[in-house]
């Protein structure tokens, strides 16, 4: 094999996945069609759950440097806003960061880990050979083929890999036509709701967001399916002006476009995230209307879920079923995001029949429990993977790690950054540390003080919880031993702690 894993697509999800795989000890090659990054930014918001993950990877300071944080977000353009101040996590806010900057930082991180990123390399064919994968690559110099144990399509919503692997993409066709334009406004006060601001009129939606001094992002949505004759054509400034006029009745003076693009509410989910040795992650696996700023965040968390599992698989350390838990855990998360973005778009429809529904939703959003539930949903903090239950179950099982005190928190971050699991050992039950001795290459222990006993997987999700002091120690240890085997495989024989496997290249 030329490498362990071929990652097709060097967008944000492909880059994040490559870094996670490399951290887990796999050899990785990223194949990216574009010779240079486009420099354009679709996404601008990084959600709270991803900020915790970036912190666990030692990357958060680089992402926050020079970028603003924001404590609220809208749901379907309604008031009151979702309040992030009550989120149950370490970084309870959103980070406003252009996607181009996210990609640049991820590429730096991935290259620093030694990943081979090949730009100007387009994948045109993929074959699962049973014991590996072969793919055809097209470059300016011609065609060549590459082999690997596994291949992951992170090649966006129109994924070539998904189509070549014959994986269905089930869902609904577009019902709305939307434009994105980064332009200069001669006079922002021409927009009655200002910048930032949203107009919902009987003809559609008009949103304006300030991107940088002098540059405004205009987003228009008309609730009619795209015209097939123009669906793939370049957007012109005249088309944008006419669309803004149709929606708002205003002649807004706009010029010097930096970027003009189309998008829709096509909503689709891959029928499976794995077919043999080919897997999917990010937009290649799920697409939806970009309301609530969730697609990129969803895809990055696919990468964080898949990376350690696939690395363990290709380095021969994975217990049975580990790789299949990727689709089993992540596909339901995407299903919920697709449902909730459909709800938001319905609520934003210009149809006056929706107005009473909007009023009811506004009243519901004023209720702290509802506001908090939706805030946790769109930030990805409500994720609870359905892990197989052990002898004891707990509300935290499958959830992201709860906020920790600085001492244990630092210990956990250091372990997760190295691609290892973390076992938090409470003062009251020092014996649990012994259960992890045979896994010491893959799981490190951290004194938890008075905090709860927790086992965290490398993706920061809780895989075991100490049920409490009144449970017999032997039962607790047996439960922990099962969880360690399920996620990290059989222990090494006593006295020979297994080092993490790492291959170069
Ligand atoms: C208007 C708008 C606003 C958005 N705002 C947000 C937001 O605020 N927050 C958020 O979370 N999400 C947002 N999103 C969604 C987000 O932009 C996407 O979910 C994200 O880009 C998906 O990343 P990806 O890496 O999966 O795919 P992509 O970003 O599409 O990257 C795929 C990569 O694969 C490469 N590629 C494709 N085919 C091949 C091939 N055959 N061989 C080699 N390389 C190939 C492409 O060149 C590309 O670099 C928004 C989307 C839109 C349209």
From TrEMBL:
<dbReference type="InterPro" id="IPR050641">
    <property type="entry name" value="RIFMO-like"/>
</dbReference>
<dbReference type="GO" id="GO:0071949">
    <property type="term" value="F:FAD binding"/>
</dbReference>
<feature type="domain" description="FAD-binding">
    <location>
        <begin position="2"/>
        <end position="340"/>
    </location>
</feature>
<dbReference type="InterPro" id="IPR002938">
    <property type="entry name" value="FAD-bd"/>
</dbReference>
<keyword id="KW-0274">FAD</keyword>
<keyword id="KW-0285">Flavoprotein</keyword>
<dbReference type="GO" id="GO:0016709">
    <property type="term" value="F:oxidoreductase activity, acting on paired donors, with incorporation or reduction of molecular oxygen, NAD(P)H as one donor, and incorporation of one atom of oxygen"/>
</dbReference>
<dbReference type="InterPro" id="IPR036188">
    <property type="entry name" value="FAD/NAD-bd_sf"/>
</dbReference>
<protein>
    <submittedName>
        <fullName>NAD(P)-binding protein</fullName>
    </submittedName>
</protein>
<dbReference type="Pfam" id="PF01494">
    <property type="entry name" value="FAD_binding_3"/>
</dbReference>
<dbReference type="Pfam" id="PF21274">
    <property type="entry name" value="Rng_hyd_C"/>
</dbReference>
